[in-house]
Amino acid sequence: MTLWFSKDEFNSRLAQIQAALLQRGLDGLVALQPETITWTTGFYTRAYSSFQVAVIPAQGEPHLLCRDVSAYYVETTYAFSRSSFWSDGHDMREVALDVIARTLGKKARIGIEADAWPLNINLHQFLAGGLKCAEWVNVGDITSRLRLIKSPAEIDYQREAAAAAEAGMTAGVGAAMAGNSERDVAAAVCAALVKAGSDTPGPGVLSSGERANHLHGGPTDRHLAHGDTLQLEPTPHVRHYNARFMRTIKIGAASDRDREIADLLIELQDNALAAVAPGVAATVPDRLYREAILGSGLVRSYTNKTFYSIGLMMSPTGAEPLEVTPESDWCFEVGMTFHSYLLVAGFGFSETLVVTLGGFERLTNYPRALIVSG
Q1: 35-46, pLDDT tens digit by residue?
Q2: Is 131:158 a contact under the CB 8 Å cutoff?
Q3: CA 248 to CA 370: how far, in whole Å?
Q4: By CB count within 10 A, which of 76, 117, 212, 330 is most buried?
Q5: Cα separation of 308 and 289, whole Å?
Q6: CA 74/CA 84 separation, integer angstroms
Q7: d(CA 92, CA 102)
């Protein structure tokens, strides 16, 4: 067995979930979100898009249900002992009903992650119709909230991902030469990420030309030209724990004005990040970000969030459900991990950080400067 974490850590996570279930008067949780299943039980397979469920009683061990071809991964990654399987050609929903009824009872008060992407309306109606005497309650906030505070072992995986991100950035800068295409840069980044320990190759944001002024660009056939701007954000995952950072790259040369803007944005970002500490309202660094960005005169409005939580994330999940905007009503806590970014006037800079007792620590440690390739 090759558990990603100690058995004690999995037992602790299970105990936290069960305490929350008992507090809400629930008999158990039917977990469908892949991150919930993996975080709670350890079970992981690349085929997590196949139907899988973890039935977590308010007392006792979870009961895992998955496709039978994943039995090897049950044996090697699952931290508990109760499991069942469905086979191709069988109605896996019927098998799930049986597992839920045997684990929680036919008249149970059952929590379900109503916002889990594998739960569609047909599946929900089937489960509710098959257990007509059960009461179904949306408790999608339980595990998503618990996962916001990372253990030291989780943060270690994010440190490894951060190191992979730095390797990816170095490779990307090396390939960001006039005449090369965005795909050439992406290929270099992907290879470096995987070699450095990332589970996933994706470079994240990679865009040049007019798309460098906008978020979420991906590699195209476009060839880089001298003086171009390239936005690059490697997004590696180690054990599917994420860390990422963004830098702006100028191809071959940067003007004095380019350097002036980059230095200004880095300074104002540093000032905002310096306000992060346990107990500090999320709106404090957010306000510092926004006031400085608008005060720079570079843009007339700025609507992007300034931080969002990252951790265990499996595609299509791209972030945890906690972000910082002017309307945020929560405070930073020790063990939270965030990606904090800005993209202003075609210049993007970001970091992954963890909240510590003394304030925060950067997990990504690449030089904070405008990069000129070549």
Answers
A1: 999 999 999 999
A2: no
A3: 6
A4: 212
A5: 14
A6: 10
A7: 15
Q: What average pLDDT does the segment 288-316 reach?
A: 96
Q: Is 352 left (phi over 0), alpha (psi -120 to 50) or beta?
A: beta
Give the Cα-Cα-Cα angle 297, 300, 305 (nearest 5 degrees). 105
Per-residue pLDDT tens digits for 74-108: 999 999 999 999 999 999 999 999 999 999 999 99
- Kindly tell me if the per-residue pLDDT of 280 is higher than 90: yes
Q: Among 315, 362, 342, which Cα is nearest to 165's? A: 362
Backbone angles phi, psi at 106, to 5 degrees: -80, -15
- The rounded distance, in Å, linking the Cα atoms of 269 and 247 is 13
Distance CA 337, CA 238 (A): 15
Q: How many CB atoms lie within 10 A of CB 23?
A: 10
In the structure, what pLDDT confidence band is assigned to residue 374 with cuts at 50, 70 and 90? confident
304: exposed, middle or buried (C-beta count within 10 Å: 0-12, 13-18, 19+)?
A: middle
**Tokens standing for 47?**
């085929």
CB 230 within 8 A of CB 270: no
Look up residue 328 and give its amino acid.
S
Beta strands in the chain (DSSP E): 28-31, 53-57, 63-67, 82-86, 109-112, 135-138, 206-208, 229-232, 237-238, 241-242, 247-251, 307-309, 323-324, 337-344, 347-356, 359-362, 371-373
Residue 71: its H or E element: helix 71-77
DSSP class of residue 211 equals G
Query: What's the average model confidence in pLDDT over 177-205?
Result: 95
Q: Retrieve residue 229's tokens.
A: 């701007």
Number of H helices, E strands in the chain: 10, 17
The pTM of the whole model exceeds 0.85: yes
Q: Where is 138: in which H helix or E strand?
A: strand 135-138
Tell how strand 307-309 and strand 323-324 pair up. antiparallel
Whether the bond into 316 is cis, omega within 30 of 0? yes
Task: Give the dihedral sign, CA 300/303/304/308.
Answer: positive
